[in-house]
Request: fold
Amino acid sequence: MTGPRDRRWLSFQGLAGGLTLFTVEALIVLGLAAVAWLLSVLILAIL
Amino acid sequence: MLIRPVAEDFKVIGFYMGRISLVVAAASLLPLTWAGLAREWNPFGSFLLMTGVFALLGVIGVGLAPRKSELDWSHGMVVVALTWLLVPMIGAIPLVLSGHFGRPLDALFDAMSGLTTTGLSLLGDVDHLASSLNFWRHFLQFLGGQGIILAALTIFAGTGGITLYIGEARDERILPSVTSTARFIWAVSVVHLIFGVTSLGLVGWLVLGFDLDRSIFHGLMIFFAGFDTGGFAPQSTSIGYYHSAIFETVTALLMVAGAMSFGLHYALWRGPRRSVFANLETRTILSTFGFTMVLTLLGLAATGLFVNVAGLTRQGLFQVLSAHTGTGFSTVPSAELAKWGGLAFGGIAIAMALGGMGSSTAGGVKSLRIGLTIKAVINQIKQVLLPEHALVGTAYHQSGRKHLTPSLIQSVMVISLLYVALYLLGAGIGMAYGIPLQQSLFESVSASANVGLSVGVTDPSMPILLELVYMLQMWAGRLEFVAVFSLLGFVYAWVRGK
Reply:
């Protein structure tokens, strides 16, 4: 049985939360890419 | 003394497997409809046969009607282990009949690889495969990643659900009931389906110049295989086919999302968001990602394969992310990956072995176990170095303050050691066939950790025994051993029990 808390996923608030989740994940990937870029610069400079 | 199972035990197991078969039969209507709409009549016939077999088994199972439909722990584990054998066997029917596989076992290998979200493939000519069959391969990864049991739990709520849920290697109940947790997991998937397919489709259409329907097809396939950390791709050259940094970035986002625990998804969705970065699991995966990234970039730079920053970053980052999340997409061919060697090879192999987060679709040892193991080792060292009566703190943060108990350490160590043993099993068999240690270990780790990156060992001409061992590794690795051992115990009790 689903309660009001579960049904909230289908509401606009739920979808906005989903969009936030997707955006945070995009930021994480960009953050990881930035770290990889910095590491590459450092490694190529050292080698 | 082991008690031999009685007819009622078999009825309970058959009843629940029947219910799950009916759910898979319903899911099989999707590729059947796809084949009909695409006018692919040969695949249509084989999908009809497959759906019929699932439905027939479902009706027989449900018709067993045990006196008590409550599922105890051992029954639940046996149901999970058998389901993960049964679905690939029946699901391989359209692949066997497609004529794209040299032997039926190869088709079963691909079905098992698909369902366990591994991504290793023995398919001869993926570029000329009927679109409905390609859809079925990718949809199998979605079914396996989401969890067949989870799908059944969403529909058939009832007693014993938690046993099935845990049997499928999930141990995190985000919401109070298993059913509401299952529904939340579906909500997360739908959000990623909408945003993922739209983003990939737009890139395909606007950047790569694909037709609209082709863009959507590729977007959908990459979503299924990326978000469920599967690794199948509609083209033989995997993600390298697209030659697009932006396509790789969206794919990377889906891979990262797939390797995140659903508890983390919940926290990021509903908050508090900052607390997730205090979790031991989050910190561990960020650290191991950094470590394997450094190893891989150092190795690649040392080989001289990539001399500019952009090329080194793009290739290194994508392959490490693919390995660490257990996806198996690649932007370099297997033959080139095999040439990487040294530190880069080690970095990728370690990333595969470590795996993603618990209660996600990723495989491998899993970050929380790695974090807890490191913490236990540090505590042991502290106990040796500090005065005899000094107390060593056992607290750690993982969705709240928790304590590292001896039983928790034991359980973490046992599962971690079993993974190491599984990695070594495939490597040993591979070496017995004359495959060099490095390649043998890489492919074995890839199969056991349900990754799918290959250095070319997985090939239609591979020895049958090695193929069977990889299938066993994919199955045991996906279920994290407990359900597998329960099935073995059940069979032993049936044969030797009294």
